[in-house]
TrEMBL record:
Parts of the chain that traverse the membrane: 15-34, 72-99, 111-132, 144-165, 226-242, 249-268
Organism from which the protein derives: Shinella lacus
Protein name according to UniProt: DUF2182 domain-containing protein
Keyword Transmembrane helix attributed: yes
InterPro entries: PpoB2-like
Top-level taxon in the UniProt lineage: Bacteria
Keyword Transmembrane helix: yes
Annotated keywords: Membrane, Transmembrane, Transmembrane helix
Length: 272
């Protein structure tokens, strides 16, 4: 195979991976904008509550226990998983493409298998988020209308907890992994059957360790609040890809902690 023919094959494989990444994000975004299978309009809810979310903005709300059927639990899981795909794949795409380049002699499949492993980790997060939302809903602690926490005490705890985690050693280790993909892929190299899938699991695990508390913030602003979804997705990309991402993480920690304390103080003063 001549150099020009090889270049065409490599370009084709890269195009397949890029189109797969774009398709995954596009389908996920469209699904969330359509309401995530819940029968509610995410755009409508976001416009009603604004960037602050229903709880913080004081938007009139409906909070009541929700009866969860197995079918409804599946709907919520799919919503969470595809929301994670829409939010996390854009910032993970450079690593997927890098892994594909390192395995370019095997075609497009290693990169796609790596992506499947990465998405499997976030499917696991989707299961956990669904179980937590179900438990909170059963206790009347989550809004049935806007899917946000029903009390400012809980919201403040999530904000403060997320801020403290931003300063933790585990966060630092996971963020360093995500920001240095070449070193990470070399250090955690896997061989043998399903090696690419297992590499995707490893990278996804570090990514989850880096971002899970940021995703928990959706319970504060509203699980399907487009303002918060886009804001967190953009922030994650900045934290992972921008030159000053490490410093941004520390500044964000202070903002989250102060925001949580202000919200808590307001709750104590009003007795809400």
């Amino acid at each position: 195979m001549g150099p020009s023919t090889l270049d065409r094959f490599l370009a084709r494989d890269r195009l397949i991976v890029i189109l797969s990444l774009l398709s995954a994000v596009a389908v996920s975004v469209a699904y969330i904008l359509a309401g995530g299978g819940t029968g509610m309009s995410s755009l409508g809810m976001s416009m009603d509550t604004g960037p602050a979310g229903a709880l913080i903005a004081g938007t009139p709300d409906m909070v009541s226990p929700v009866v969860w059927t197995p079918g409804y639990a599946v709907v919520i899981f799919v919503m969470w998983w595809l929301m994670m795909v829409a939010m996390m794949v854009p910032s993970a795409s450079p690593v997927v493409l890098l892994y594909g380049a390192l395995q370019r002699d095997q075609g497009a499949w290693p990169a796609l298998e790596f992506l499947l492993g990465y998405l499997a980790v976030w499917a696991g997060f989707g299961v956990a988020a669904t179980l937590i939302q179900g438990a909170l809903s059963a206790g009347g602690l989550v809004s049935a209308m806007y899917m946000n926490l029903a009390t400012t005490y809980l919201a403040a705890a999530v904000l403060i907890g997320a801020g403290l985690y931003q300063l933790s050693p585990l966060k630092a280790v996971c963020l360093d992994h995500c920001r240095s993909p070449v070193e990470a892929l070399t250090r955690h190299r896997r061989t043998g059957h399903a090696a690419a899938f297992r590499m995707g699991l490893v990278h996804g695990g570090y990514c989850l360790g880096c971002c899970w508390t940021l995703m928990a913030l959706l319970f504060v602003g509203g699980v399907m609040n487009i303002w918060w979804i886009v804001g967190i997705a953009v922030y994650v990309a900045i934290e992972k890809l921008a030159p000053g991402g490490r410093r941004v993480a520390k500044v964000t920690a202070i903002i989250l902690i102060v925001g949580g304390l202000v919200l808590l103080a307001g709750s104590l003063s009003t007795g809400a």
